[in-house]
Write a structure and sequence with these properties.
The chain has 7 helices and 15 strands. The N and C termini lie far apart (53 Å). The strands form 4 sheets. It has a 5-stranded parallel beta sheet, with helices on both faces. Strands 10-9-8-12-11 form a 5-stranded antiparallel beta sheet. The chain has 2 domains: 2-122, Response regulator (Rossmann fold); 141-247, Beta Barrel (OB fold (Dihydrolipoamide Acetyltransferase, E2P)), CATH 2.40.50.1020. The longest helix is centred in the middle third of the chain and has 32 residues, at 105-136. By secondary structure, it is an alpha/beta fold. A hairpin with a 4-residue loop joins β14 and β15.
Length: 252
């Protein structure tokens, strides 16, 4: 899905574009809309969209001033304008595309397709950049980041921010510091291989735990780990010896 926002001072234009996207580009999810530049700046900061549909002529600040007011523009832009000369100016402003009002369905679909291609290329660039960092900094594990592909995005996470991983059928749920959860459509055993060198322990068929967050090992009632966030994680009989070796490496 492509997370998008629409900024246009005319509500009927927002409603029209929203309807066209829902019908002809269902991969675009509208996270928020705004009818003026200041609110537009706020929703961009709050939602961190992949794509902004931005009207150029608005009272107060125009579309270009919206972009200039942002500290970072880490999203794609499609300008929407009723005036062709503004569209040409938009292209010079490095927009991926522009649409003339009233919006043509075929032009809209073409613009969304270009955005998809560019977002995919950006994702691949991030993955390559992450690979190069791992190669260059192979001994600096605190700087390494694990790439987690969700249905919405490619997240890069430091292993030391991962408290534990839990298997759910063919999916793996990552529990991060701060309470965030990330679900990835890959089995947990793949991440066991990746994270063992970063202090993670497979204590159960369905659980992989960062030993830095283990508070205690409760041995009664079959045994379980108590983590710093008071989560209880089961310990399977077949994993006990590995757990002992990981937690008490010099034990005879």
């Amino acid at each position: 899905m492509i997370k998008a926002v629409i900024i246009d001072d005319e509500k009927n234009n927002i409603d029209n574009l929203y309807g066209l996207l829902k019908k002809h580009a269902p991969e675009v999810e509208i996270a928020a809309t705004a009818t003026n530049a200041d609110d537009g700046i706020s929703i961009i900061m709050e939602t961190a969209p992949d794509l902004v549909f931005l009207d150029i002529q608005m009272p107060g600040k125009n579309g270009f001033e919206v972009l200039k007011a942002l500290p970072h523009c880490e999203f794609e832009v499609v300008f929407v304008t009723a005036f062709d000369q503004y569209g040409i100016q938009a292209v010079k402003f490095s927009a991926i595309d522009y649409l003339l009002k009233p919006v043509n369905t075929h032009e809209l679909k073409a613009a969304v397709a270009k955005v998809k291609d560019k977002l995919e290329q950006r994702k691949q660039n991030f993955q390559l950049e992450n690979l190069l960092k791992l190669i260059r900094q192979k001994d600096e594990k605190k700087e390494h980041r694990l790439a987690l592909a969700t249905t919405r995005e490619m997240r890069f996470v430091n292993p030391d921010k991962i408290i534990r991983c839990e298997s759910s059928n063919a999916y793996t749920i990552f529990y991060l510091t701060g309470g965030e959860k990330i679900t990835v459509s890959r089995p947990i055993f793949e991440f066991e291989e990746l994270l063992t060198d970063y202090g993670f322990i497979r204590c159960h068929q369905s659980h992989l735990v960062n030993k830095s967050f283990i508070k205690s090992w409760i041995r009664e009632n079959g045994g379980h780990l108590l983590l710093d966030d008071d989560t209880e994680v089961p310990v399977s009989r077949g994993k006990k010896e590995n757990l002992v070796q990981a937690l008490i490496p010099n034990r005879k």
